[in-house]
Every structure is written in structure tokens, then in C-alpha cells.
From TrEMBL:
Name under which the protein is recorded: Carboxymethylenebutenolidase
Any one GO molecular-function label of the UniProt entry: hydrolase activity
Top-rank taxon, per record: Bacteria
Species this chain originates from: Nostoc sphaeroides CCNUC1
A Pfam family assignment: DLH
Length: 276
């Protein structure tokens, strides 16, 4: 096969249909949100080196919508992330989930998480933050979004990015990070972790974490809480004592309905409280 350039690849790529192959079988508790009354589907976001695909959902009528960036898990912008954007749209938001791994590969087509991790590890934070800036610009110019009402939420990999983007873009009104990693070893591609930006953070971020999360230990959560005390952001972290990692992921066995519903209520209240 003829080698395809990165620019050509991202220009022809699109968002997934259905769930990522690596998360089969799908739980019977999966939540399905229809697109009635919405404009929902794949769009292209102009970025520095071409275009990246994204999934967008918004009310079918109206304008000047508050914007929510929805940041993917390690599995990409598959059906679960798309459904979350539709949940926001039903509430009057313009919600957008850009494909932030697409230059490195389409993780939704991989059936093994051990094939996904090396791809995600190659994604530079600087690229992600730039792509999110481009997504905000597109939302305002092309999708009737209100730049003065910008929020962000992300899950797992996207939880870490939520903290970092809130530090990168002070125009964000509020963020909600679901079980995003807080500490780690700095690398050239990932030079900072949330704990490194916590004390200088100005944007209010709500962190939602699981007490039984074996990958994000409670001592790192406490470290983050301690650093946040010296910031002006008024950020908070909630820990659900019995929840594992990915407790919001209704398509997986890790789903905990009570904690997920409570977290969603807290997210909506946090956004409203902070002007999103």
C-alpha cells in the first residue's frame, strides 16, 4: 500500500460509528441518547496541519450556545463519548468531542488495549492543547457557540487533559475532570501533570475520583488537593469511596450508577455556578 502522509490521513479521517472494538462486549446498562431536536454528527475542525474530525451535538434551533469540550478516554471518540455530547445538547449546550489521537492512529479500530497505549503515548500535549484551541475557534465561528461560556470535561486520559487545558486557556469558565491521572514522570511529549499546574490554576475545576481506583491512588489525590489550596481557582475534588476507575462509563463493568448520576448532577451544577 502506498504510504499515506499524516496530513492526508487526518484530512480523510472521520469519527467512529459504534463503540470502540477494545471495549466489547457492551454492558446492558449502556445509556442511549437520541438526536431528536438536535443537530448531531461528524464535523471537520481546521487545525494547523489540516483538519481533524470531531463529533458535535447542539440544539437544532437557536444560537449563542454555551460550549462544552468533551475529551475522550483512551478509546477515542466512540459511541459513549458521542452519547455524552448529545446529553449536553439536550440541555442546551453545543458539545464537541474532537479526535485528539487521529494523527497517531485510529484507536477505535484496535481490539486490544495493549495496541492502543503505545499510540496514545505518542500524542504530544502541545498538539492536544492547540487542537482544543482550534475547536473552540470553530465552535464560535461556525457553530453558533458563545466564547464567553466555555466549559470542558474529560474522562480518564481526558480527565488529565481537562486540568491541563484549564491551565492553558484562562477563558475556560469551568472544568470537570473525571478520574484523570494527576502525577507522572515528565517527558518531552508530556512535560507537565495536573499536580504541576495546580498552585497556579485560576479556572475552577471539579475533580471526580474513585476511592477504589487502583491506577490513581488516593495519596496522589491528596497531593493535588494540597497544591490546589494555594491557587485562586476554588477548585474542588470529590472522592467516591467505593467507586473504581471509569465509574461513569455506563458501557463497561466499572459503571457505578449511583456515583455516576451524582457526578453528573455535580458537573451540571458546577457549570451553572461558574457561568457555563
Amino acid at each position: 500500500m502506498k504510504e499515506i502522509t499524516r496530513r492526508k490521513f487526518i484530512a480523510t479521517a472521520t469519527v467512529a460509528t459504534g463503540f470502540a472494538l477494545a471495549v466489547q462486549p457492551i454492558s446492558a446498562e449502556v445509556i442511549t441518547t437520541d438526536a431528536k431536536g438536535l443537530v448531531a454528527g461528524a464535523v471537520k475542525i481546521p487545525v494547523k496541519d489540516g483538519e481533524i474530525p470531531a463529533y458535535r451535538a447542539a440544539p437544532a434551533t437557536g444560537e449563542n450556545f454555551p460550549i462544552v469540550l468533551v475529551i475522550q478516554e483512551i478509546f477515542g471518540v466512540h459511541e459513549h463519548i458521542q452519547d455524552i455530547t448529545r446529553r449536553f445538547a439536550k440541555l442546551g449546550y453545543l458539545a464537541i468531542a474532537p479526535e485528539l489521537f487521529i494523527r497517531q492512529g485510529d484507536v477505535t479500530k484496535l481490539s486490544n488495549i495493549n495496541e492502543i497505549r503505545p499510540i496514545v503515548a505518542k500524542v504530544p500535549d502541545a498538539q492536544v492543547l492547540s487542537d482544543l484551541d482550534a475547536t473552540v475557534n470553530w465552535a464560535v465561528k461556525s457553530a453558533k457557540g458563545n466564547a464567553g461560556k466555555l466549559g470542558i470535561t474529560g474522562f480518564c486520559w481526558g480527565g488529565r487533559i481537562t486540568w491541563l487545558y484549564a491551565a492553558h486557556n484562562p477563558k475556560v469558565k469551568a472544568g470537570v475532570a473525571w478520574y484523570g491521572r494527576l502525577v507522572g514522570d515528565a517527558t518531552e511529549l508530556q512535560p507537565k501533570y495536573p499536580v504541576d499546574i495546580a498552585s497556579s490554576l485560576t479556572v475552577p475545576v471539579l475533580g471526580l475520583y474513585g476511592g477504589k481506583d487502583t491506577g490513581i491512588t488516593l495519596d496522589t489525590v491528596e497531593q493535588m488537593r494540597d497544591r490546589l489550596k494555594s491557587s485562586s481557582s476554588k477548585s474542588e475534588i470529590i472522592v467516591y469511596p467505593d467507586a473504581p476507575h471509569a465509574f461513569f462509563a455506563d458501557y463497561r463493568p466499572s459503571y457505578r450508577e449511583k456515583d455516576a448520576k451524582d457526578g453528573w448532577k455535580r458537573l451540571l451544577a458546577w457549570f451553572k455556578q461558574n457561568g457555563v
